[in-house]
Amino acid sequence: MKVLHIINYLGRGGAEKLLVNILPVYKSLGHEVAVLQLSDAQAEPSYLKALTDQGIECLSLGTGSVYSPKHIASLIRFLRNRRFDVVHAHLFPSLYWTAIASKFIGYKPALVFTEHNTQNKRAGRAYLRPIEKWMYSHFNRIVAITPKVKSFLEGRVCPAEQITVIRNGVDIDSFQNAETYHKSFWTKEFDLPPNAITLMMTARIQYPKDHRTLIDALKFLPSHFYLFIAGDGPDRAATERYADENHLHNNVFFLGFRNDIPRLMKSVDINILSSAYEGMSGVALEALAAGKPFLGSDVPGINDVVPTAEMLFPAGEAKVLSEKIALVSALNEAQHSALIATGLAHASRNSLMQMARNHVDLYTELLSYKR
After folding, report:
1. How far apart, in whole angstroms, are the C-alpha atoms of residue 17 and residue 231?
2. Taxonomically, which superkingdom (predicted)?
């Protein structure tokens, strides 16, 4: 079948990274896949190269704002010309523009939208409710990435029978099989002492991610604990200032966007994700697959992803987080190995291949209805 994924742009967010990882898996299953960006002005070049190197079309409607309604006319023309069997949209406003364009393309592909979050700004605005319901109603099926995402949608914008839960997958092998950096890497690259305990948070530096709580946790830890922040985003400068203002500039390193995340995750002592909420945290599963301890905020999208409550801390509670970090760093060999084994077993059940097969089964079901 011919499948088109529509997204705002292939930037450095979680949904975008997931598409980059999953599209080659669809292709390996024998399907023709392509991705269409509303705008490529903020596209990550390495993501585009990764897809085109594997023979996957990366298309764009231009370089303008993703919020411009002009994309509707462009999308209509594009879909009329290419006639895909399945059109699968992600994120807002791709949700709106795809819904409207589908009314005018002259044929009826299977229309799917994936809801990636358990919350959004539109949900709190009652006057948008009728518009939201109208937009969601144009899709044959809404994919919720966790049961909590389904609960967020159900009844508010669409009926239960329109929703299918398909959990996100991660590239388990790339994290399990990543090469670990030698201990000297931290000394050579960052001048850390031999007894350094390394922590890392991998996430876009923007709300709902909560880097400040993790930075605050360092205040309660000995000076040989060091935090590495992998990722970029609009709040980076403010977060860097916050670390400086709290006299932690020697213990917090901002790595920016990195292509060696699997190696880094496998090399640090503890991976951490501090967040106000998530859709379904791929970072949590990646950290578990890397075979290192993980700690995450006790919020939707993380607490329903990890295998045990031992891996959670109350969101925004820096002191409690510091205590959890100290506890994990002090585990004996047997306790450490047991924690890792639990994480690896859990991560292995959430593969990209299983996710892709679930999507293909859904597409096949929807296309059989149309026939």
Report:
1. 12
2. Bacteria
Phi (first) and psi of residue 203, to 5 degrees: -175, 155
DSSP letter at 182 equals: P
Residue 140, φ and ψ in degrees, nearest 5: -65, -35
Q: Which residues of 267-279 are buried (b: 16+ CB within 10 A; e: fewer)?
A: bbbbbbbbbbbbb
Helices of type H across the chain: 14-28, 45-52, 70-82, 94-101, 129-136, 147-153, 172-176, 184-190, 211-217, 236-245, 261-267, 282-289, 318-329, 333-347, 352-370
- Output the six-digit token pair for 81: 């010309």
Q: Which domains does the chain have, with CATH numbers?
A: 2-169+351-370 (3.40.50.2000), 172-347 (3.40.50.2000)
Give the span between the Cα atoms of 10 and 43, in whole angstroms: 5
Contact 38, 97 (CB under 8 A): yes
Tokens 């500039």 belong to 249
- Among residues 115, 117, 118, the alpha carbon closest in space to that of 136 is found at 115
CA-CA-CA-CA dihedral for 68, 74, 78, 81, to nearest 10:
160
d(CA 313, CA 275) in angstroms, rounded, equals: 11
The residues near 289 (Cβ < 8 Å, ≥ 6 apart) are 170, 172, 175, 176, 343, 344, 347, 348
Q: In angstroms, rounded to a whole number, what is the distance separating the alpha carbons of residues 71 and 162?
A: 26
What does the DSSP 8-state code read for residue 141? Answer: E
> What's at 88, amino acid-wise?
H
Q: Is the pTM of this model over 0.85?
A: no
**Per-residue pLDDT tens over the stretch 272-316:** 999 998 877 889 999 999 999 999 999 988 998 899 999 999 999
Residues in contact with 67: Cβ distance below 8 Å, sequence separation at least 6, in sequence order: 93
- Locus of tokens 């742009």: 9
Write out pLDDT tens, residues 123-176. Answer: 889 899 999 999 999 999 999 998 989 999 999 999 999 999 999 888 888 899
Q: In whole angstroms, what is the distance from residue 327 CA to residue 324 CA? A: 5
